[in-house]
Structure formats: structure tokens, C-alpha cells
Amino acid sequence: MSPGGSKAPARDTEYARAERAAKFILSKTKLRPKIALVLGSGLGAFADELTDATRIPYGEIPHFPRSTAVGHAGVLAIGKVGSIAVAAMQGRVHLYEGYSAREAAFAMRVFGRFGIRSAILTNAAGGINAEFKQGALVVIRDHINLQGANPLIGPNDERFGPRFPDMTRAYWRPYRDIALEESKRLGMEAQEGVYAALLGPSYETPAEIRYLRIIGADLVGMSTVPEVIAANHMGIRVLGISCVTNMAAGILDRPLDHSEVLETGERMKGQFIALLRAVLPRIAAEKN
User: Fold this and answer.
1) Residue 6 located in a structural domain
2) Computed from CA positions of residues 57, 61, 67, 72, in that sequence, does the dihedral angle turn out positive or negative?
């Protein structure tokens, strides 16, 4: 009891905040999507393709972190791809913006609270594997977390998931197979690779890229992993797709520039949208 005799307010938990955000979003639309998409740097154009769409700026959603990165619109779009309802994030937040790993994964918590069972996470990545070319679409097979943080640090809320979630199948194999099959059918021939997540915002040095290659990374970026961990914690199945928007430091003899990332994303958006349109019906038909 408080000194005045009234009952003290309940602790404002992450679960309660996610619940409030989810209820707010659902109050804005009649759609009840089961699939979420996170659209990375330069890849947000897919959300513009949605029909019957409701668009909500992140700043209007209770407790939702706001994206400050260039190329991230900071809008949640809920609409349809054909007959399939989806929730699509145009941009995400990153640890380098000053957010914690828990905050970077908060949107995934909200998705879990309004019934999302599958998530397609995309990003712009630097290519480490010399077989990858700029503009290639790569299906993420696994990741290496070098961000020095994890969204599950701290007390565990069993309503989200177990204290020690298994990450053996962090990127759901049936979804990966679907993406590879559909890319081949579309003439894109996407490959698979391991994504290394670093803190940023500086790009990696050539020595760091050599190290990443030695430990098995094919791609490098500054996002995605906190969301994947939180999704797996909640039993949400994940498909990850990287667009190789630039070759990593030291691969080519030239400096790196973020404008190149955005330009490549713009150039590849047609293929990227075509792949997502092909993948979505098959993921929607999969039984969780």
C-alpha cells in the first residue's frame, strides 16, 4: 500500500507496454495479420504496394521506438498482399541510434501480442563472401551476434517465452527453402549465407572483415539479430533476407558510402518486391 492507503500501481512491464501498443494498432484496422515484415534500408518500397492499408507513424504508437536512420521511413503499414493480411515496418531502430537491444526488439514483442506467427526480416548488408555480387539477395541461414548485447538480458517474463530459448533453428528451414525455390523460379538464384551483426554505426575495417570471414560470416550488418532472438523467444518463425547493397571493407579497393546502400536498394526493389510477393502465399499456407 502507498503511504496514503491507496494501492500502488502495477509495475509497467515490457509485456504490459507491448500489450498496450498491440491494442492501439489493432484499434486502427480491421485486419488481423499473421505475418509481419521488417523492411530495412532502402527496402521499404514494398509497403507502398499494400492494398487496403492503414499507415501509422511509429511516433503515434504507445512505447514504440522511433527510427532516426536515413532510408527508414518509420511507418507501420497494415494491409494486404493479394488476400494476405500483413504488418509491414518501413524501417527499424538500431543499437547505434542509442537504443538497447531490448528496445530494438520491442516491435517484435508487439507483433507477438497481436497474433503474428511468422516474420520476414530484411536488411541491407555488406558482402563478405566473394561469390556474392552487389545487388544479390541472400537468404540468411544463421547469424553471429557480435553486438555485445541481447534483448533477453534481465528478468525473463515467461509470458513471452522461456529463460533459455533454443536458437538452433533461428531461421526456419522450410521458409528458407521456399525463398530459395521462389528466387530460382523467378530467375534470381538467391544464395544462402551467415549474417554477422555488429554494433555500428562506423563501417568495419578491412581487418575486421578478414576476421569475420575467418569465423564464417558471409554478410555483415548492424541490425536484425535482436529481432530474430526476440521472435524465437516467442515462437515466431523467421525468414531473413539480405540485399547485398555494398561489398564490405577491403573486398573492393574503394571507400564505403551509405548513399551506395540506398541506391542499390532502390535498384533492386523490383526483384525484392517480386520475391516477397512470391514467398508470402506459401508462408501463409504453412501450418505453424
Assistant:
1) no
2) negative
